[in-house]
Amino acid sequence: MKSDIAKKGIERAPHRALFKSMGYTDEEINRPLIGIANSANSIIPGHIHLGKITEAVKTGILMAGGTPVEFGTIGVCDGIAMNHTGMKYSLGSREIIADSIEIMATAHAFDAMVMVTNCDKIVPGMLMAAARLDLPTVVISGGPMLAGRHPDRQKNMKIDLISVFEAVGAVHSGKMTEEELGAIEDSACPTCGSCAGMFTANSMNCLTEVIGMGLPGNGTIPAVMSARIRLAKQAGMRVMDLLEKNITPRKIMTEKAFTNALTVDMALGCSTNTVLHLPAIAKEAGISIDLNKINEISRKTPHLCSLSPGGTHHIEDLNMAGGIPAVMKELSLAGLIHMDCLTVTGKSIGENIANCRVLDPEVIRPMNKPYHEQGGLAVLFGNLAPKGCVVKQSAVVEEMMKHEGPARVFDSEEKASQAIMTGKIRKGDVIVIRYEGPMGGPGMREMLTPTSAIAGMEMDAHVALITDGRFSGGTRGAAIGHVSPEAMQKGPIAAVNEGDIIAIDIPAKTITLKVDEAEISKRLDKWVQPEMKIKKGYMARYAKMVSSADQGAIIE
Q1: Quick one: pLDDT band at residue 387, thresholds 50, 70, 90?
Q2: Where do the DSSP E strands lie in 144-302?
Q3: Could you tell me if 229 and 358 are in contact, meaning their C-beta atoms sit under 8 angstroms apart?
Q4: Which helix (H) or strand (E) holds 68?
Q5: Binning pLDDT at 50, 70 and 90, where does residue 473 land?
Q6: Out of 472, 484, 547, 548, which one is annotated catalytic?
Q7: Annotated catalytic, 100?
Q8: pTM for the complete prediction?
Q9: Domains identified in the chain and CATH numbers
Q10: Which residues does 373 contact at the CB level (< 8 Å), separation at least 6?
Q11: Cα separation of 364 and 360, whole Å?
Q12: What is the pLDDT of residue 345?
């Protein structure tokens, strides 16, 4: 066992003494040591209950003959961090999570790992650590929140966190009263768990299952269901089997596995943040994901699930319809899934989904009746984004799939949000928010406040938004993010002037600043890099080391 280096032999008597000081018996010390990375805290709705999930994992490990050893990791709630300085720290926390798990697992010579997670950057951070360490590992999420119900029961509709963000825009435009906003606020988030739509947390939890690092049900079983506790116990038992068979993450996270993940990503209409996280995870596994591959897969993968924010269904509906195994089964009928990929069940994808079927053909559409012929995401290229930018095309209204209009330029999210909320944006405008990229932000903030305000004001069929920052998985509309190179790296977005015409053609995968190339070069020659917005601490260091968004915004 790997842990023998910390506990076997005469020379390790002091080490064993330290274990015994904590109450460990000789029997426990002699068993495999299974590290449990627990990201529980009392500030994230998706993590407040992870103590119960961790206890269930421990039970599973003990039943299978291992010794569970728990430690904590940090986590940021993107919703609470939204639209203020705190959001600058969210994406950067991914690297700290991965690094901290590497430190704990290596320093204490764990034999295997179970990673207990749920939200946004925590999931990919843990997967990055799993690929880096290559110890037998199972990832178990805390599960999604149930959707709320609109306080006006006559509307008979489900709501979620995005409903609250969009209601703020409705209040600012006079379409809703503050009392109505308050009622929606009280109803939108009725339970613990990751927010109820196909936002970033649930996107990554579902894709963890597809990649093979989570058990079937990991992405969709609601947080409040007893099945979630049973799944956690199974995760504890499964990791012991992986250890015995020496099945490690790099045997699971193969190039084919990531192709499967991108394919299901397109079918589900996942968050644009997956375009940051999947390449970052893949790189830790020694695999490169080129952004052009996303378009290739999107062209041949139909969009089968219309989930919030692009549709009316929520993760609980997807779970009842058969979950991720049913989605993969449907895609496999067209030969779009690599069936031989190994998973943490110890079986292949093909074996896992052999007996699965779609239980609700409206939630998971058949291949011959998709919501859209192409997948949920698209990567656009052009002189404004030579290295690409990303849009959730499944959440764009038909009128905005092609759009041309004058640039309204803002050098921060706050300035753009103020202009939107005070009615200074007109129909046809293309809002440009720059200096919010991985380096310029720093930290590449999500732009949920301005996009939700646009949607809440019912302007999403008339206005586009382009940024070198990123968007929440809850964003809908013609919201184009991850513009690379970013403004702080002297990307062409830094050369956009107020009133310049920008042409967007999502079907053609192009984005064009309609300014002569010589003029763009002239403007960039005169460009002077602004001062860094954060000059000390972690994010100042992060800004100096972080890569471009098209490379996953990783620290080299």
Answers
A1: very high
A2: 148-149, 158-159
A3: no
A4: strand 67-72
A5: confident
A6: 472
A7: no
A8: 0.96
A9: 31-147+192-353 (3.40.50.2300), 148-187 (no CATH), 377-551 (3.50.30.80)
A10: 302, 303
A11: 6
A12: 98
